[in-house]
TrEMBL record:
InterPro entries: AA/rel_permease1, APC_superfamily. It comes from Cryobacterium luteum. It comes from the Bacteria. This is APC family permease. It is found in: Cell membrane.
Length: 500
């Protein structure tokens, strides 16, 4: 963190341990919900394998992120790592290209997490519309989505106003509740014999699948969509500056959440396809867990499950709300966004970032297409992961970082693993998701993604201009202070004044 920014932006408080960080990230397994029917549509039962591989990819990437979190404890997660590492030390010019790269990574990460709020508000609106006939008679799904977003964002803003520790307490409560329906809907189909393994073994890949360039690009796009969900548990590292003991808390939180994600992603998709078959899962692209619940528990049981899932979706909104707001705070701290976005209240909460995040997602909900929003967010996530992994490689090789203390170290030679997955993200997954989007929903989501990402350029130049003005004002104030001190001295007439 550059010194000249230290007095401009308020700092986050060290208030949580690894269990609280894990609690906040426990909503990540819910990120599978929007894609439980989408992945089988393209890859049939092989979606189970893709989820497992994607969580393993998360382990590979997050080992690097955990090391960076402990090496740079004042940098806030992926956004902070890239900004800090790519920034040119002792830069004397006006525009630092390295700083721009790091800031763009942080902006991409913010855009990747931000739409989670809108996506799950849309899902909640759809569930409410199907669950309560009286609501369906009064409101459309679109209206319920807008209303759900407004109510949930308002309530979470109030809760998070009082600091991250209280947000983590809410995470404990909602985390336990969210895991209950997932555990039930995962274990019950196996226990009751509703899972038919022939639905999996007999439909491993689509009948027309071939390993040509078309299908390879589709597969890369699927991995981009899957990693947006299955690798999202790196959020536990985002709170590095707020852990009481980052060197121990960060790795513990990541490992715990990673194991939970691996089991949940693989088994939930297995249960859905095992009960419904590939065609049944594809027929319910947004809510395949509902017919699973109906098959096992009947109508009354499915109603209870939907209510519990809605509560669980509030948790993932909370996780994204915290992650995206702290990404904005990190950018403001590093001078890559106007300092206005880094303001915190007396509880240490970046409240301006929270309000901007909520307002932005209300706009996204008005778009109405969950698939388009998710596709655009996946573009941002590939950029964020790719640049962050390249930052790790630079941190391992660059002389200025070589002697830094690393309380947690990834296995020896991990920079090569990071480079491999960095290239997997950029350019492979990026090209794949753009291609997949063009086949599925046209070019609209791709344009939305790149337009939002490109908006960062003028914002960044404005923030650099703002920073330059502040530095000049600070220099003038310091010079004037020296003049006042000299004039106030009884021997001032005997001292040459260089200012004059």
């Amino acid at each position: 963190m550059s010194e000249h920014r230290s007095d401009e932006v308020d700092h986050l408080k060290r208030s949580i341990d690894w269990k609280q960080g894990m609690a906040i990230a426990l909503g990540v397994p819910l990120l599978i919900l929007p894609s439980l029917g989408y992945l089988p549509m393209w890859t049939s039962a092989a979606a189970i394998l893709i989820w497992g591989l994607s969580v393993i990819q998360g382990f590979m990437q997050n080992a690097a992120y955990a090391e960076m979190a402990t090496t740079f404890p004042k940098a806030s997660g992926l956004p902070g790592f890239a900004q800090h590492i790519f920034r040119t030390e002792n830069f004397t010019g006006k525009y630092d290209k390295g700083k721009l790269i790091g800031g763009f990574s942080a902006w991409s990460y913010w855009f990747a997490w931000n739409p989670v709020l809108a996506i799950f508000a849309i899902l909640i609106g759809g569930y409410l519309h199907g669950l309560f006939p009286i609501l369906a008679e009064t409101f459309t799904e679109y209206q319920l989505s807008l209303l759900s977003g407004l109510v949930i964002f308002t309530l979470l803003s109030v809760v998070n106003w009082f600091g991250l520790k209280d947000g983590a307490i809410l995470g404990y409560i909602l985390g336990a509740l969210s895991l209950i329906p997932l555990i039930i809907l995962t274990v019950a189909p196996f226990a009751t014999g509703h899972v038919d393994l022939a639905n999996i073994t007999g439909n491993w890949l689509p009948a027309d699948w071939s390993w040509d360039m078309n299908h390879v690009l589709i597969l890369l796009g699927i991995f981009a969509i899957a990693q947006w969900s299955a690798c999202g548990w790196e959020t536990a590292a985002i709170y590095g500056p707020e852990y009481k003991n980052p060197s121990k808390d960060v790795p513990k939180a990541l490992l715990a959440v990673g194991l939970i994600c691996f089991l949940s992603y693989v088994l939930v998709q297995t249960a859905v396809i095992g009960v419904l078959g590939v065609d049944g899962a594809v027929a319910e692209p947004l809510s395949p867990l509902i017919p699973v619940a109906q098959a096992i528990f009947g109508e009354s049981g499915s109603v209870l499950t939907i209510i519990m899932l809605i509560i669980a979706m509030v948790l993932i909104i909370q996780t994204a709300f915290l992650g995206s707001s702290r990404a904005m705070h990190s950018m403001a701290t590093e001078g890559n966004l106007p300092k206005f976005f880094g303001k915190t209240n007396r509880h240490g909460t970046p409240f301006i970032a929270l309000l901007v995040t909520a307002a932005f997602n209300m706009v996204l909900i008005s778009v109405g297409s969950m698939a388009a929003i998710l596709a655009a967010a996946a573009i941002g996530y590939t950029f964020a992961n790719g640049i962050s992994l390249f930052a790790y490689v630079k941190a391992k090789k660059h002389p200025s970082f070589a002697n830094l203390e690393r309380p947690f170290k990834a296995p020896k030679g991990w920079q090569h693993v990071a480079m491999l997955f960095g290239l997997f993200n950029l350019p492979l997954c990026l090209v794949g998701v753009i291609y997949l989007n063009s086949l599925e929903i046209g070019w609209g989501s791709t344009w939305v993604g790149f337009i939002v990402l490109s908006l960062y350029i003028p914002i960044w130049f404005y923030s650099q201009h703002e920073s330059s003005k502040h530095q000049k004002a600070a220099a003038r104030a310091a010079a004037n202070a020296r003049v006042v001190d000299l004039d106030a001295s009884p021997d001032s007439e005997l001292v040459p004044d260089p200012i004059r």
